[in-house]
Specification:
The structure is a homodimer of 142-residue chains. With 142 residues, chain A is an alpha/beta fold. Helices cover 42% and strands 16% of the residues of chain A. A 5-stranded mixed sheet of chain A has the order 2-1-3-4-5. Chains A, B: It holds the Pfam family dCMP_cyt_deam_1.
């Protein structure tokens, strides 16, 4: 499942964007929707990887048994998405470049798995090194 | 400023959608972007009033001095948006139909103002009464 999110991140990078991808799966591992950060490509600050995947999955009756897989720990915005819609499980590629709201999600009962994947770490670390201003804009750092 | 958000909510209602609207202003009261919930209209569960207004405002260098005005207290998803992007002030039309994450935002230093506007309360209460399933879907209640 992480490979789907990484594929999305790589699409984003190829488009000139921030390489963060995500995918939402149902309990049987069926893909509901995937997406990636589109801040640069669409000039859309609301399109983080997780929110883009959530959007592309369309309307769902319940998220309790769904699994959000993302290349990077979700920020407060995306952690809030997970909490509000009661997404049961979050699998993250890494937390080294950004820790996000994972402890908060654990504290409210979300099942969190950190894969600590070297490819995910390297992909984003290189982007941040080369594009610090865009990265800071994406996480609301002035 | 609340009138802009209420106008957006009424557009949403006229489109057959959930009547929640929002608007983002700069420190001088200049409108940066406004929007409304588009779950029903666009089949887009990611488009809450606040996220739609944030999206329509486009990329901004800093949100510290911006003001998010919304007809309803922001849910966890939209509260997370406010926290991540350090939006300094949130003005809400009402908290009676939904309390959202306002206490959490206050605890991290966001300036929160609750207008407790009867028009906002009535507009959403009537929608919830007539469309309980759509409302519950919008706040992730199974």
């Amino acid at each position: 499942m992480l490979a789907v999110a990484v594929h999305e991140a790589r699409i984003g990078l190829a488009e000139g964007g921030i390489p963060i991808g995500a995918a939402l799966f149902d309990a049987d591992g069926r893909l509901l929707g995937s997406g990636h950060n589109r801040r640069v490509q669409h000039g859309d600050p609301s399109a983080h990887g997780e929110t883009d995947a959530f959007r592309n999955a369309g309307r769902q009756r319940s998220y309790r048994d769904t699994i959000m897989v993302t290349t990077l720990a979700p920020c407060w915005y995306c952690s809030g998405l997970v909490r509000q819609f009661n997404i049961g499980t979050v699998i993250v590629g890494e937390t080294r470049n950004f820790a996000g709201g994972l402890d908060w999600l654990r504290s409210v009962g979300v099942n969190v798995v950190d894969i600590d994947d070297p490819e995910c770490v390297k992909l984003l670390a290189e982007y941040i090194r080369d594009n610090p201003a865009v990265w800071n804009e994406d996480i609301g750092e002035g």
